[in-house]
Amino acid sequence: MSLSLAGVCRGSALVLLHGIRPAGVKNGICTHVLVFSRLSLCNHYSSSKARLGLSRHVASRLRWANEKYEKFLQRRFPRFYVLYHTFMTGFRLLFQNAKEVRIIKTKMISNNVKFQNLSYREMETLRLFRRDMIKAIPLVLISIPPFANYLVFVLMYFFPRQLLIRHFWTPRQQNEFQRIYHSRRAKDHAAILMGLTKAVPAVTDSRLQSRLLDLCNKVQSGAQPSVPEIQAVKGLFSGPPLGIKRLDADHMRLLCSLFFLTPWLPAFAVSHRLRGQALELLQLDRALHRLGVHELSESELRQACYLRGVDSSRLNIGECQDWLIQWLKLSNQLKESETSLLLHSMVLLSANYPKAFYL
């Protein structure tokens, strides 16, 4: 009897190791247990493989159906297909940006990294995402009431520039809307230059007074000033009368148009927001200097020029690079106390570019 038990156990060991039932072991207890275990394992793995195969099959069928639907729209409703494709691409880009922002924020918290120590692309990702979310909040609030989403779709169709963020604009709309926004801020260029001219009598140093007046007259006459000419008056922008904390309320409200900020806030709030924008721009410039202008892609290069006051949609790549290099030459010589000059340089360096650059 003991021999039989030993043989059964040896047979069960062979089953466990090799999966083969030994000869002569047909009705033993171990045999039934092992056969049941093998069936359970096979059922488990086969069911897992079946579920995986089913999910892959469903995903492939969905992709096939989506491709057929897009081809149908492209053939029968080409204008609607452009909107559909733009929206689908926009959602993918938005989710991708949200993922990138989460990674950057996690890095900043876990490694105690400050904003000014991030790379240029990380800084720009955070800045653009924050701006996009601020613009998207009103649309989200409008869509909260029941059945309001139908109204939202109508508004989005007829007012894409006012309601949609950049992810949901077509390439043609991006160029068109950028020109509209730039023309709005360019309307205040003359008033900002006039404000600088009015500040000339308040300058006590006669040499600096003459240089500031010559600089303003040069830009107002349609000429392009050089970086050394602007740097020569930078001392006037760290204290009175043109320091960021010494500007009068009306002049600060004119500068708000350069960043599309609301000018109808109290003067202390306008001053605070302008200081924040100027400091952020200075930090972006330092990070861009570390990266190098020639490392930027075409879209990054155009976005960098547009942020700093130039309508880059009307420039070629060489003109964008030339202007941005000149901007960084000026910015790299400025201290945080001189950021007011950085704001005014968005007018001084961009008002007559590129038409006066080649004169």
Which of globular, elongated, flat, extended, rod-shaped describes the shape?
elongated
Distance between the termini: 111 Å
Uncertain stretches: 1-42
Q: What is the domain tally?
A: 3
Considering DSSP H and I runs of 4 or more, what fraction of the residues is helical? 55-70%
- Radius of gyration over alpha carbons? 33 Å
Count of strand segments: 0
Succession of helices and strands: HHHHHHHHHHHHHHH
Taking the sheet with the most strands, its summary is:
none
Oligomer: single chain
Mean pLDDT: 82
Give me the secondary-structure category: mainly alpha
Compute the number of helices. 15
How much of the sequence lies in strands comes to under 5%
Secondary structure layout:
Elements: H1 2-18, H2 29-76, H3 78-110, H4 120-142, H5 148-158, H6 160-163, H7 171-186, H8 189-198, H9 206-220, H10 227-231, H11 249-256, H12 267-291, H13 298-307, H14 317-331, H15 339-348
Helix pairs in contact: 2-3, 3-4, 8-9, 11-12, 12-15, 13-14
